[in-house]
Amino acid sequence: MSARDYDELPMRPGELSCVCGPSARGEDALEVRDLWRLAAGFGLAVLAQALVLSALPEASNGVAPAGRIGWPYALLLIGAALASFPAALLIDAFGRRSAFALGASLGVAGGLLSAWGVSHGVFGALCLGAFWLGLAQGFSLFYRHIAARGSSLAARGGLLVFAGGAAAAGGAPAVIGLAGAFGDGMAPLFVGAALLHVGALWLSTRLPHALVSAAPQSVVDAALSWRFGVATFAAALAWFLMSGGMFHGPLNLAHCAASRGFIGAAVSWHLLAMYGPAAVVARWPSILPPMGAIVGGLTIMSFAAVVLHAGASVASLSIALIAIGGGWSLVNIGAIRLLHEYGRPPRAALALHDLCLLGAAALGALT
Question: Of 167, 143, 308, nearest to 242 (Cα)?
């Protein structure tokens, strides 16, 4: 590279100009403290998700017109799906810090708008707030890909981010109880979710920008890989089953006269089952081969989904809700390892992967 490459203005004698290429700090620049920041940010997003999922079914039931109770939850998942490609493209254009800050900001706005909508009985505001919260969730889900691609740990970096979700899920009952102590109704839970996204916003400002040089990468080749196909199909099926269970499970628990605190605890244990196994596999990856994890996880989820839709009792619903979370975790562990342990797929392919997953989740919420 020479000074002629920067020839927008004529060079003048004595002028100092940088003729070096872009900073070499790229995807390999993630340090251990950056991985922990990603894990902590994802953990805050999971806590916000716990509050939203605890509040959204009952909030929808209270303000939605007949036949539209599932709309806010579906819009939450549609927002997450639509965030996949913007997250990848904005990371390329503006860096990690700016992209993830934007995602967290949408979570703050979505939580506050949802709180206002449920307080004033405005169904449209609740739907738009849920959509913005979904966009924030889509950005936070991309943390695992950035951790896997940006560190020497490969797939273990992505699993470490999932482990942050497990740590957060353990504290979810206390956070749900604290948010509920500030007032009756669902609005305090949405406000709590907004405050948690404020924390994720602050953590995102501590990440390196890490603008990446545009090395040629074939998205088509990555998408046609059998590993990419298996990982995407299996994980999409898992997200389809999980989203249906996550909508019908808390709602059926409410119909079975379970208390709000019990439903919040059941959702928290469900989230812990979703992310807890990742902490174990990140430490001992050899104990769970990818294909074995996928097959086992889908088997567990299939049985659990039948129980959740039957809605026989509070006990069976709670156990099935936890089981479907554990099965989802196994499938996603296998998918992450298939995607990242055998190469480095381009971010556009990873965005396509997430779009398929979250699109299947939105479809599952509507069935």
Answer: 308
Is residue 18 included in any domain, yes or no?
no
DSSP 8-state symbol, 285: G
Structural domain boundaries, residue 225: 31-365
Distances (CA, A) of 337 to 200, 251, 278, 344, 364: 26, 34, 11, 11, 25
Predicted confidence at residue 150, as pLDDT, reads 59
Q: What would the two tokens of residue 234 be?
A: 């299996």
Q: For 108, phi and psi rounded to 5 degrees?
A: -60, -50
In a domain, 20, yes or no: no
C-beta of residue 298 within 8 angstroms of C-beta of residue 257 = no
C-alpha–C-alpha distance, residues 55 and 172, integer Å: 13
CA dist 28 to 33, 95, 103, 151, 344, Å?
Answer: 14, 14, 23, 5, 12
Does 314 have pLDDT greater than 80?
Answer: yes
Neighbours of 147 (CB within 10 A): 29
Q: Indicate the pTM of the whole model.
A: 0.74
Q: How many residues does the chain have?
A: 367
Q: Which residues of 40-49 are buried (b: 16+ CB within 10 A; e: fewer)?
A: bbbbbbbbbb
